[in-house]
């Protein structure tokens, strides 16, 4: 295998990305990371072509003529995008842009009420009362305040989050080797997602600062266009990034939980709930698994990251406030619980939708859905 081919070959394909068909004969033994077949070593792509041209598979294919074909999501090698190529990471970034930007914008009304409940709990005492109060004081359009910084900020964040997650996941797996990558896959998920989120939040932070001000301070600005220059004029460029550390504190644990829980839940669903292997599931079933696992992951994310979410809202709303001042003023109980039920609803739905959109886009461009069951090779 030459250097170029080795660079784009994954040390993870067997348990994360590989599409497995149903073959009539057992897989060949693996020697030194290569499949030994007929006395020679074959790469995974060569082995795939060899299997797909066997008489057994050709006959099986012929026997299915006249029957409604079952949709099987193809591996990336069967499509136009090569796994772990620049085009692959670009596709993941585009999928992340779509799934994060659109979903966060869609839940803007919930976010408006949540932020106001965090900032002024004595005024916004309940979820239903919060919605009614915003509409009463600001009109129905008040529920959509901050949609522009939300859309742009989370689109940038999503591109970095998903694109760099896939990049770091492969990079860290290659660093530790195939055996350790499989053995400690959860640590790979955690490290890859944390690294990606550090980068993603740098892009999100300025937009988050504008969003919170617009949503919680009526009259501060109409939106992104006048909000950005107003913060810079009053506080300098640093005013856009004063919430970066609390944002990291909120988003890094959130993203680590989001990706690790999602990947583990997908694997568990295919292993214990879905009655057939992933490779035999229809497109709708696979995307349904993605949404379900995403929702479960979202609930866990909301709980673990909620204290930091309260801090971000407080600091971006109070000029010159510090983290210690925010904690002292809010109290520990409020820090962990204020606005939590609404955030669980919002983040659970949002995260489920994000994974559904992300995997739907991957399917659209010929890539496999994320996660799946680890299939151990059969022993003689």
**Largest beta sheet: strand ordering:** 1-2-3
Count of spatially separate domains:
2
Question: What's the shape?
Answer: globular
Q: In what range is the share of β-strand residues?
A: under 5%
Name the CATH homologous superfamily of the largest domain: Mitochondrial carrier domain
Compact summary:
The chain is mostly helical and 380 residues long. The protein is built from 16 helices and 3 strands. Strand 1 (30-31) and strand 2 (34-37) form a beta hairpin.
Structure overview:
With 380 residues, the protein is mainly α. It has 16 helices and three strands. It has helices at 3-8, 13-17, 44-52, 55-63, 86-106, 108-119, 127-138, 147-176, 178-183, 185-216, 224-235, 244-273, 283-317, 323-330, 332-337, 340-364; strands spanning 30-31, 34-37, 40-42. It starts with a helix and ends in a 16-residue tail after the last helix. Residues 1-78 and 374-380 have low confidence and may be disordered. Its main location: mitochondrion. It is found in: Mitochondrion inner membrane. This is Mitochondrial phosphate carrier protein.
Q: What is this structure's SSE topology?
A:
Layout: H1 3-8, H2 13-17, E1 30-31, E2 34-37, E3 40-42, H3 44-52, H4 55-63, H5 86-106, H6 108-119, H7 127-138, H8 147-176, H9 178-183, H10 185-216, H11 224-235, H12 244-273, H13 283-317, H14 323-330, H15 332-337, H16 340-364
Antiparallel strand pairs: 1-2, 2-3
């Amino acid at each position: 295998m030459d250097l170029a081919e080795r660079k784009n070959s994954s040390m993870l394909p067997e348990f994360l990305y590989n599409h497995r068909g149903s073959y009539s004969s057992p897989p060949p033994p693996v020697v030194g990371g290569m499949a030994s077949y007929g006395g020679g070593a074959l790469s995974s792509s060569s082995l795939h072509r060899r299997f797909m041209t066997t008489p057994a598979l050709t006959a099986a294919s012929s026997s299915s003529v006249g029957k409604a074909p079952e949709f099987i999501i193809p591996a990336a090698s069967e499509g136009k995008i090569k796994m772990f190529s620049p085009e692959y990471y670009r596709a993941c970034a585009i999928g992340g842009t779509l799934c994060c930007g659109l979903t966060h914008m869609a839940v803007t009304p919930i976010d408006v009420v949540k932020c106001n409940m965090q900032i002024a709990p004595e005024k916004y005492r309940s979820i239903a009362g919060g919605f009614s109060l915003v509409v009463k004081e600001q009109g129905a359009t008040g529920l959509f305040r901050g949609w522009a910084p939300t859309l742009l900020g989370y689109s940038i964040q999503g591109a970095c989050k998903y694109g760099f997650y896939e990049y770091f996941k492969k990079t860290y797996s290659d660093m530790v080797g195939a055996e350790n990558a499989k053995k400690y896959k959860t640590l790979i998920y955690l490290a890859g997602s944390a690294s990606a989120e550090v980068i993603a939040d740098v892009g999100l932070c300025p937009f988050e600062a504008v969003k919170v001000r617009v949503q919680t301070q009526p009259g501060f600005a109409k939106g992104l266009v006048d909000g950005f220059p107003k913060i810079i004029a009053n506080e300098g460029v640093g005013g856009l990034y004063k919430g970066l550390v609390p944002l990291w504190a909120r988003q890094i644990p959130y993203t680590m939980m989001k990706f690790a829980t999602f990947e583990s839940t997908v694997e568990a669903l295919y292993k214990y709930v879905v009655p057939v292997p992933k490779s035999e599931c229809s497109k709708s079933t696979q995307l349904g698994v993605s949404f379900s696992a995403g929702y479960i992951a979202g609930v866990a994310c909301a709980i673990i990251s909620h204290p930091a979410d309260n801090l971000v809202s407080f600091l971006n709303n109070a000029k010159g406030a510090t983290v210690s001042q925010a904690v002292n003023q809010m109290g520990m109980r409020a820090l962990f619980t204020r606005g939590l039920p609404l955030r669980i609803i919002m983040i659970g739905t949002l995260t489920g939708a994000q994974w559904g959109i992300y995997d739907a886009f991957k399917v659209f461009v010929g890539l496999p859905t994320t996660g799946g069951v680890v299939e151990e090779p059969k022993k003689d």
